[in-house]
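#structure-requests
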Amino acid sequence: MSKSPATVKVKAQAKRTASLALAATAATAALTLALVTSASATAGTGAPQEGLAAAAAPSVSGSPEGAFSRITVFYGAYIDAVYDGDGTRAKQLRAAYLSAPLQRELAKWEETNHADGVLRAQNVPLEWKVTYVDSGMGTTHATVTLTWSGSDTTQLHVQADLKTRKILSITG
């Protein structure tokens, strides 16, 4: 049984269409891989690469009403003050964000350990990250990860009062 010319033509067109679709898919995948590889190879440089669209700018948000936001704001500002050598500002931040009992506890800890009680270290971290853990029984809990030279990290567990938004404890 022989095939009619119309059947041969339709099958050839279908085959060509499938080949074009496959080629287009492969080209799209290759281009996507090239862009992703290029972006990940240059991640962290802070500047968009020539020919590539800039990624969304980082953002930080918070609320003066939230205890978790207060923990985040405190650690960011406190680390900046210590990094800048601004002891006066660091003391002001402690007075504003830490409960009186915690301030007394940290003074004792610092006298014994000869280190900064808020950071639990003698140095200033290169990076910090605050992660929400949970809230309950009138308090909110967060983990503060401090990154030092290399990839060494320290995790601190921080608790704040939901009503006063003052930091009640720092352990770790």
